[in-house]
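FAQ: What does the model actually see?

It sees only this:
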Amino acid sequence: MSVTDEVDAHEFGGDPDGFERLWTPHRLAYVKSDKPAGESRGCPLCRKAEEDDRAALVVHRGEHCYVVLNLYPYNPGHLMVCPYRHVAMYTEITDAERDEMSVLTQRSMTLLERSSGPQGFNIGMNQGRVGGAGISAHLHQHIVPRWEGDANFLPIIGRTKALPELLDDTWQRLSAAFREDR
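And it is asked to produce this:
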């Protein structure tokens, strides 16, 4: 535990818990722009749906959902499947949105397997702020490709995530894979 964590815990009436903290101030723009369901103007995922594909990192557009690279990826090829409609919870999507989200998740996994050979995947949705959603007002499903050793000492000890590919290079590779897989 760092000295600042211990001081902060005592200052705010708590006991040190032994956990280090990973501060990610670069994500504050997303957190602050998050609006309650129904207010889509400030939503970064709604904006991405309206922007140029390359600028927004959108690799594929379907009828009800689109596939976009995560701006802050855990691994190269970290994708998100998002409905166009500004809706917060999985229970609020239509059958068509649910079905297309599922199909695009499966298709994304297949194309990632072909293009970069991951050895596994993490697939999931964080629902609501307390459920861990960084953008809680707009539903999105994460697809994170995984490789043996991708969670090595560097992020744990060095507090650095090594990504071997630029986002634009990943966008070019995956958007081409979606175009070729019609």
